[in-house]
Amino acid sequence: xxxxxxxxxxxxxxxxxxxxxxxxxxxxxxxxxxxxxxxxxxxxxxxxxxxxxxxxxxxxxxxxxxxxxxxxxxxxxxxxxxxxxxxxxxxxxxxxxxxxxxxxxxxxxxxxxxxxxxxxxxxxxxxxxxxxxxxxxxxxxxxxxxxxxxxxxxxxxxxxxxxxxxxxxxxxxxxxxxxxxxxxxxxxxxxxxxxxxxxxxxxxxxxxxxxxxxxxxxxxxxxxxxxxxxxxxxxxxxxxxxxxxxxxxxxxxxxxxxxxxxxxxxxxxxxxxxxxxxxxxxxxxxxxxxxxxxxxxxxxxxxxxxxxxxxxxxxxxxxxxxxxxxxxxxxxxxxxxxxxxxxxxxxxxxxxxxxxxxxxxxxxxxxxxxxxxxxxxxxxxxxxxxxxxxxxxxxxxxxxxxxxxxxxxxxxxxxxxxxxxxxxxxxxxxxxxxxxxxxxxxxxxxxxxxxxxx
Length: 454
Prior knowledge:
The chain is mainly alpha-helical and 454 residues long. It is built from 21 helices and 2 strands.
């Protein structure tokens, strides 16, 4: 799993270890004095020592170039010296780490920093910058986790498109791969958070586990920002009112072209353009020439009866639809069950959706709403009926923890549910209940909740 913490949570660990290779006494002394100033963030003094150290002892230690990176970043940030010289120095520090110490540094992250520095300070052409990031993303996607690098990559891709160096379909392909990668990272981190929150319901977490939740929530917040930025960068190009005319004009020519129809359906489904006549005729055309999980999903989406929807959706699952689409199917099933008052079936479907896509927070809010609306049928007495709101608040909180885009909405639900739950005064005035006691519900909710320690 790619759960190493990224710089977006300010937890980068620098490997300022001195090389084990023998260095001359003179180099050892120079290196020691330089490192002492750099560690103390006495960057002006360290800067004066940097170039002489590189000239006399270029291979003495990786730390020279790691500290050098910090020194030049500080000079650029505080506008000390000539900007062009500082940019050149920073790029030299980064490139040397990549070329001379590839086994000791995160090469992909350093190369992303090189491309971003070039982009920020207008070094080289945008073609060169784009090609660097495009190659990195396609050759080492697993380690392409820097959110700033992702935003720069897609911004450059859009610039290539506007300069007629990328066609619209290639831009969409980059968008699909990048957003899919971000969603995968979000799912990994959300699963960690969800699992620990579930454990917390019955067991106190260790300090390490509490910190891990914080780390992963910070990651989730930043990947959410990246996703918003990428979607914003793509802008109106991918909206339904732009996509539909683009593809509609080509439909007759491509209505028997399996690859073209598949691309159209993926694009329209991602942007929720499934009510458009183009979507309907495209999914029917593709199902006629090549029945698949995707076409079954599409036919389920446009079916007019619940029975027909479920029939096609189940067929899509049997045919091996991917987890994101499968999660969407279970979520839609949950909505239908919920609208029919079948809360138990709805909850099972919603939880199936979150199991498949851990960063999917909306199903938890749906469950919270059902639980909150069951106070009349759950609980053996008035206090227990209101205690159901604690269960609802628990689900709402989980929604905001696994999906940062829902954090504000979820917080409002949590506050509302906790406000309707029994108060400290209610518990103290009732002889049958005490803080920390567990209440179990025998209705469809079928869960237990501990009375808070007021």
